[in-house]
Amino acid sequence: MRRLTRPVFLGKVQIGGGAPVVVQSMTKTPTRDVERTVAQIRSLEEAGCEVVRVAVPDLESARAIEKIKARVSLPLVADVHFDYRLALAALEAGADGLRLNPGNIGDKEKIRKVVDKARERQVPIRIGVNAGSLEKDLYAKYGGVTAEALVESALRHVRLLEEMDFRLIKISVKASDVPLTVQAYRLLSQKVDYPLHVGITEAGPGDRGLIKSAVGLGILLAEGIGDTIRVSLTGDPCYEVWAAWEILKVLGLRKRGIELISCPTCGRCEIDVLTIATEVDRRLRRVTAPIKVAVMGCVVNGPGEAREADVGLAGGRGWGVIFRHGCPVKKVPAERLAEELLATIREMGIEGVE
Question: Which residues participate in [4Fe-4S] cluster binding (predicted)?
Answer without folding.
Answer: 263, 266, 298, 305
